[in-house]
């Protein structure tokens, strides 16, 4: 089965179990200062895991596009990618362990046809000092599920991953892990979680590649969490039921949740019974294009020579998805990550003999053709993406030769490549750091990694401070018109909810002094009558001269009071709520927001007019509006 078939089977399977299929959120998180990209399926769902009411109900399922920049340096082996799709299903205070584990096991074995003999699972060993119990419930459920398939599943105490490499499998099928393993929160280890952070035990499912022999360099014995490649994790069911309290212990969340994530590409890999993710579906087709263009065989190459193929295939796919969500190459934030991806791909293209950009449009078109049906944004922006990446490639090639000459000069002149050398090569010639390091390794030129680490930490700290300022909440541009448009966005949000339904919420917003832009979930084009009604409601509220005020509220109290939040936002325990209207007759709008706003809607003055309403992805619409 290809990726599309597996994705559709998963979504339909859980739809049959009463789940509502929801669209993927953007790779660009809304107003989230903690990360540049959406890196997990649960990120946009977090407010609802904490107790907010999701407009689609308590059972949700989707396939979320994800990108993890921290994995960029790992790409090149047979299993790491920066971009991936995360299959996810959620129970928001509804079903729990029994249903989740049975459904996922049934999906793998009955629906996809995987042999249960190839499946192994891990569970949480507990943490006594934090009063977190051992997850014996999941073990009981797993034993019964395997028993129905005629398999006696023995449970084994492993402890830490390091201990696993000493004690090995011991004939087990269910393994208890402690430490950071089999506990999920955004900061992983339970003892490191901040106050108010949700988390819980998880149960991971691994597939065994029987043809892969254990490599002793990863430890004396093999076990499910061994890095030798014999086992591959394909799904993780998180039972999110705890929240960190001020005393350092854990209390129960208002509701017990299930947060499942499974790598689509990984599941495709095990169905193909190959440990190499780049032999699967669209990635394999991408490599086939590179083989034909370069005249070099991927299959006959050593692992070291397979690296360039894998890096190119992964990085260009990630670049296509970034471009579809509006990221453009640049020197900071998301633009810098995109530029690194493209330049790293181009640098590796030279390693397999590709010295022009003729192969690049072919890869862009392959990815667009593969994903256009599910991710409409790629279809809509295919031409822009192709032009953008070719332009970036041509810019890089113009500076590459000059940069290589400068590198050779430094390599001959210096006994060690310093951090200053590396960053000068980037600033002057566009050399990403890892390219300089790879070149140095090829030429046996030592790199002062200690100095580089210090330099990177200083740069990371400066970036963090800049991000805190940039993403402090609310509006960055506080000019008079931007403040007016910010307030008008609140009126628009509520008007849309009244006209189209209470499923409307903000998925994205962009304010300039010239106009507002508002993204929201809706599965069909607005009619002229609906647009006119929304405009009429907003203009009526401007005419009424409603007061605009703000108050601080506990997050839970805000949700109980019906306050609306931004989809995907991670909120603190106490939030600022802006209210439009008179409390005696009921507020017209209540939203969590950082401000600023006008004091009264009459200050908007002008007439509100929607100038464009369009689709930007599957199930997501965009409005652009002005005050005229």
Explain this structure to me?
It is a single chain. The radius of gyration is 26 Å and the shape is globular. The protein contains 18 helices and 17 strands. Helix 9 (333-351) crosses helix 12. It has three domains: 3-271, BirA Bifunctional Protein, domain 2 (2-Layer Sandwich), CATH 3.30.930; 284-470, no CATH class; 480-627, 2-Layer Sandwich (Threonyl-tRNA Synthetase, Chain A, domain 2). The chain is an alpha+beta fold. Residues 466-474 have low confidence and may be disordered. The N and C termini lie far apart (53 Å). The longest helix has 32 residues, at 382-413. This is alanine--tRNA ligase.
Keywords:
single chain; 628 residues; alpha+beta; BirA Bifunctional Protein, domain 2; Threonyl-tRNA Synthetase, Chain A, domain 2; 10-stranded mixed β-sheet; globular
Topology:
Elements (H helix, E strand, L loop, with lengths): L2 H14 L3 E2 L24 H4 L9 E9 L15 E10 L4 H15 L7 E6 L11 H13 L6 E5 L1 H7 L6 E4 L5 E2 L13 E11 L22 E14 L5 E14 H8 L9 H14 L8 H22 L8 H19 L7 H13 L4 H5 L1 H32 L5 H11 L3 H10 L6 H22 L9 H21 L7 E4 L4 E6 L6 H17 L3 E7 H6 L13 E9 L3 E7 L15 E10 L2 E8 L1
End-to-end distance: 53 Å
Report strand %.
15-25%
CATH fold field value of the largest domain: BirA Bifunctional Protein, domain 2
Rg for CA atoms? 26 Å
Give a quick account of the main beta sheet: strands, pairing sense, barrel closure.
10 strands, mixed
Number of helices: 18
Stretches with pLDDT under 50, minimum 5 residues: 466-474
**Fourth CATH level, the homologous superfamily of the largest domain:** Bira Bifunctional Protein, Domain 2
């Amino acid at each position: 089965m290809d990726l599309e078939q597996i994705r559709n089977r998963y979504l339909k399977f859980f739809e049959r179990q009463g789940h509502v299929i929801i669209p993927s959120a953007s790779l660009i998180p809304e107003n989230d200062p903690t990360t540049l990209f959406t890196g997990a399926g649960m990120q946009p769902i977090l407010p609802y895991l904490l107790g907010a009411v999701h407009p689609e109900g308590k059972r949700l399922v989707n396939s979320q596009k994800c990108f993890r920049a921290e994995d960029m340096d790992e790409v090149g082996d047979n299993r790491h990618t920066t971009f991936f799709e995360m299959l996810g299903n959620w129970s928001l205070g509804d079903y729990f362990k029994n249903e989740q584990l049975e459904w996922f096991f049934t999906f793998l074995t009955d629906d996809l046809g995987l042999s249960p003999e190839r499946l192994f699972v891990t569970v949480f060993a507990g943490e006594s000092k934090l009063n977190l119990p051992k997850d014996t419930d999941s073990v009981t459920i797993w034993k019964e599920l395997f028993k129905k398939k005629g398999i006696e599943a023995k449970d084994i105490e492993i402890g830490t991953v390091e201990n696993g490499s000493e004690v090995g499998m011991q004939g087990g099928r269910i393994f208890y892990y402690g430490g950071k393993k089999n506990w999920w929160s955004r900061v992983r280890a339970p003892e490191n979680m901040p106050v108010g952070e949700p988390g819980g035990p998880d149960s991971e499912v691994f597939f065994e590649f029987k043809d892969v022999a254990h490599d002793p360099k990863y430890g004396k014995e093999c076990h499910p969490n061994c890095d030798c490649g014999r086992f591959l994790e394909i799904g993780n069911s998180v039972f999110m039921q705890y929240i960190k309290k001020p005393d350092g212990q854990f209390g129960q969340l208002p509701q017990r949740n299930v947060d499942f994530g499974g790598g689509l590409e990984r599941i495709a890999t095990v169905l193909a019974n190959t440990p190499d993710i780049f032999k699967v579906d669209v990635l394999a087709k991408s490599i086939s294009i590179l083989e034909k263009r370069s005249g070099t065989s991927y299959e006959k190459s050593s692992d070291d020579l397979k690296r360039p193929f894998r890096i190119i295939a992964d990085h260009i796919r990630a670049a296509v998805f970034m471009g579809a969500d509006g990221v453009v190459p640049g020197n900071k934030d998301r633009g810098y990550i995109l530029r690194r991806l493209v330049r790293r791909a181009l640098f590796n293209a030279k390693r397999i003999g590709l010295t022009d950009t003729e192969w690049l449009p072919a890869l862009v078109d392959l990815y667009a053709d593969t994903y256009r049906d599910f991710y409409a944004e790629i279809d809509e922006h295919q031409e822009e993406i192709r032009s953008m990446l070719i332009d970036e490639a041509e810019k890089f090639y113009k500076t590459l030769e000059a940069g290589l000459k400068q590198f050779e000069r430094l390599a001959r002149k210096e006994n060690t490549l310093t951090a200053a050398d590396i960053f000068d090569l980037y600033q002057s010639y566009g050399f990403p750091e890892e390219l300089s390091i790879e070149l140095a390794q090829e030429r046996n030129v030592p790199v002062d990694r200690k100095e580089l680490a210090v330099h990177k930490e200083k740069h990371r700290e400066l970036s963090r401070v800049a991000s805190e300022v940039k993403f402090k909440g609310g509006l960055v541009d506080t000019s008079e018109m931007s403040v007016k448009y910010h307030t008008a966005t609140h009126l628009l949000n509520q008007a849309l909810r009244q006209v189209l339904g209470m499923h409307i919420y903000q998925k994205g917003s962009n304010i300039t002094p010239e106009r507002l832009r508002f993204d929201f979930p809706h599965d069909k084009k607005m009619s002229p009558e609906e647009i006119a009604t929304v405009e009429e409601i907003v203009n009526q509220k401007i005419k009424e001269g409603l007061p605009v005020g703000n108050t601080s509220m506990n997050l839970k109290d805000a949700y109980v009071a019906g306050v609306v939040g931004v989809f995907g936002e991670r909120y603190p325990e106490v939030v600022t709520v802006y209210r439009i209207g008179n409390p005696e007759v009921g507020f017209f709008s209540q939203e969590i927001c950082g401000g600023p706003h006008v004091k009264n809607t009459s200050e908007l003055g002008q007439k509100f007019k929607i100038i464009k309403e369009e689709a930007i992805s599957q199930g997501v619409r965009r409005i652009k509006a002005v005050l005229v």
